[in-house]
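Quick one: structure for this chain?
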Amino acid sequence: MYHYTDHDIARMYHEPAKRSMLVSHQDERGPFARDRARVLHSAALRSLADKTQVVSPKEGDTPRTRLTHSLEVAQIARGIGAGLGLDPNLCEMAGLTHDIGHPPYGHNGEHALNELAVHCGGFEGNAQTLRILTRLEPKVLDERDHSYGLNLTRAALDAACKYPVTKTNPDGTTNRKYSCYDEDRQILEWVRDGHTDGRAAMEAQVMDFADDIAYSVHDVEDGIISGRIHLNALWDQEALESLGASGETAFGVSADRLVDAGGRLRNLQVVAAAAEFDGSLRGRRNLKAMTSELVGRYVGAIIEETIAHPNNQAGEGGDMSAEHGVNPSHARLGRIHGDLIVPDQVLTEVTLLKSLAVLYVMNTPERKERQRNQRERVAMVFEYLTAGAPGALDPMFQLWWEQAEDAAARERVVIDQIASMTESRLARVAQA
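Got it. Here's what it folds into:
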């Protein structure tokens, strides 16, 4: 396993020892197991149970929510991480956090809040994740009531940063995707201390593609069960070409490569069996067999390709060698060292499966009308809280509103509260 240093396991705030123990007991968990537990027990993670993944939690019998999706991403990330010699708890924790900053209504809510947050610099779900982990989640306070959020280790926060940049660069240009708001820049600088380039941490790279695997395989499973997606499109050349074109537009992978990926998928026995889905016991078993085999197909290929890649061979980095009792072929991979290598065959198949959800679930007229109503609801709540602040805010957010130095900071507090809401609560506030 990769050798994580004292620098990696440092926390921003030194916490006092627990004082209510019945017996003298030494916590034998490692720092990353504690990080994982803190995220697992957080209110922010629980709230994802009432936040949309692909379809709303209220649609269908057992659709995936942001929470169940996050649990699946965490499990896949743990498997990839273990295969690469990374700390499994750290990779699993990264998977649990990857959507924790998402507001009600998923990406649609994200777009709505970004349009509303005009004075405080916009809204980005990835940046909100870091803000939750380091400030908004009520876990660790100092004696002056300054919040450190969950007070995770440096490596844990680094693993949660998919896009480790602020919105605004030093030269004044801006990034479309970023993991840190400009006002939280000092936090990101602490997290990224030790990096010599702009690459995401190795564990964050694992989390990122674990998300793609879960999205492509499990969300397509939801679409098939709900009747929105039919795998027979893989055998229909016209439908497959339309799917390829949709994927090229949405994800930037050439349509020809996606069509070839469709040909490979339809030649897999588990895919052919799942294409006959009829809702029966056998049909559901075949569908589950397909999702299981595809996840294993992609995870195994990524692990093998990443370990074999010349850039990831043991070399520089003296603290990652056999003297620490680790396999030299894995010792190079971890935190600031290594690149996750995704074989083209995996990338194109995963992208094609993601394209199924885009074409048959996300781009329907009914969904677009529902999204318009959702954005209006978010705007109504924003106007209500802004007009009624601080009294209309929750007590926790009232304190931050009163401490805010200017109108932009007060607007950020309102945005923070809306982003923390479940979809059910936001709907209740909008109707009040």
